[in-house]
Design a protein that fits this description.
The chain is of the alpha/beta class. The chain is built from 17 helices and 12 strands. The strands form 2 sheets. It has a 6-stranded parallel beta sheet, with helices on both faces. The protein has a 6-stranded parallel beta sheet with strand order 9-8-7-10-11-12, sandwiched between helices. The longest helix has 17 residues, at 43-59. The protein is globular.
């Protein structure tokens, strides 16, 4: 099969889910193409869309939350959203691309690209079998506007929410959020530490603000750097993702007291090596941790989808919400000294999160459904 995977860089989770599907389809012998559809118009447009999203999420999370709330209200109106019309603006470029390249199926790990395909469908253009993948534990605003052959959602318990928003029940497949093999394949903690060159005698606390380095990372590390002085066996590893400014700032603040990582392609190993993971509740960040079976502490969310992710993970005992204060972080660190609590959390993750979502999604593409 010839497979097209559409995504965009508004947060790294969408690309991560898309690459998880690409990895599995390639393993099965299919030809895959990964595309940011805005590149069809210009690299400048694709970069502008991605950077605008990231800048707002990093610098003005309250504004981001307000935009999300406005979208939630707008979706109640009986008309197409501005998001549909804006994405429809490059429908001609997408039509030309599909005319020039043969694809048997299309995956989309963000609904923006699917809205482009929806515009084409509404114009009578024949579009290959299209599978939309939700990458959060909620039905995001305007997700339901995307007209697809199948909708892969993050959990069976959320099916009613998606149906209530207008997604056809007979097209919903609650397979979970696809994650790459590096999170699915168990690696013993000692082996993960060896491969990463970490001290086998130390315990590791992994801190991250998602792929874009957003959230309360700086404040968290400032407080943690004081608290862990009482715990000589504990080392903090902080991941800054694509946020270079944050990396430089934290390097000046903490020097070698915190092990800093910018972009990394070893996230799976880092999760397997750590004893506790503190991260903002992105859909992929939480899913990857749960599939890897890592005790999870959730930093304050960027308002919107992440608020729903936080609620989902705490409701089912798969993660613990973090109060970013000295007392709150001391309480979280106490988890590392409570094996029973950690094991219970991991058991809940295994109960509610489906590790083989990528395989299930690919099975769907190969089937006649």
């Amino acid at each position: 099969m010839d497979i097209l995977i559409l995504s965009c860089g508004t947060g790294g989770g969408h690309n991560s889910a898309g690459h998880a599907v690409q990895e599995e389809m390639t393993r099965r012998g299919h030809n895959t193409t990964f595309l940011n559809p805005y590149d069809l118009h210009s690299k400048k447009l694709a970069s502008r869309i991605d950077n605008t999203y990231i800048s707002i999420a990093q610098a003005a999370p309250k504004l981001f939350g307000a935009i999300y709330t406005a979208g939630d209200l707008y979706r109640r109106l009986p008309c197409h959203s501005p998001v549909y019309w804006l994405n429809g603006g490059i429908a001609e470029e997408m039509a030309a691309y599909l005319e020039a390249h043969h694809f048997d199926a299309i995956f989309a790990s963000h609904y923006f690209p699917t809205l482009i395909l929806t515009k084409l469908r509404n114009q009578g253009v024949k579009v290959p079998k299209t599978i939309q993948i939700a990458t959060d534990y909620t039905c995001s605003p305007f997700f339901e506007e995307a007209e697809c052959d199948a909708y892969v959602i993050s959990s069976p318990v959320l099916a009613d929410e998606f149906v209530g928003r207008g997604v056809p029940a007979d097209k919903i497949y609650p397979f979970g959020i696809p994650v790459r093999q590096e999170f699915q394949v168990p690696v013993p903690k000692e082996e993960a530490k060896r491969q990463l060159g970490l001290d086998p005698e130390k315990r590791y606390l992994l801190v991250a603000g998602g792929s874009i380095g957003a959230g309360a990372v700086e404040k968290t590390l400032t407080l943690l750097s004081e608290i862990i002085q009482e715990k000589p066996d504990l080392q903090v590893i902080a991941i800054c993702g694509s946020n270079e400014k944050l990396y430089i700032k934290l390097k000046k603040l903490f020097g070698s007291s915190v092990k800093l990582v910018s972009y990394t392609d070893q996230m799976g190993l880092l999760l397997h090596a750590c004893d506790l993971y503190l991260t903002k509740p992105g859909g992929l960040s939480t899913s990857e941790a749960a599939v890897a079976g890592v005790p999870l502490a959730l930093l304050p969310p960027i308002p919107g989808c992440e608020s729903r992710n936080l609620r989902f993970f705490t409701q089912y005992g798969m993660g613990k919400e973090v109060d970013v204060s000295r007392s709150g972080l001391r309480e979280i660190l106490a988890l590392m000294d409570d094996p029973e609590a950690c094991q219970k959390m991991v058991r809940q993750q295994k109960k509610w999160i489906q590790p083989n979502a990528a395989a299930s999604v690919c099975d769907l593409a190969e089937s006649d459904r």
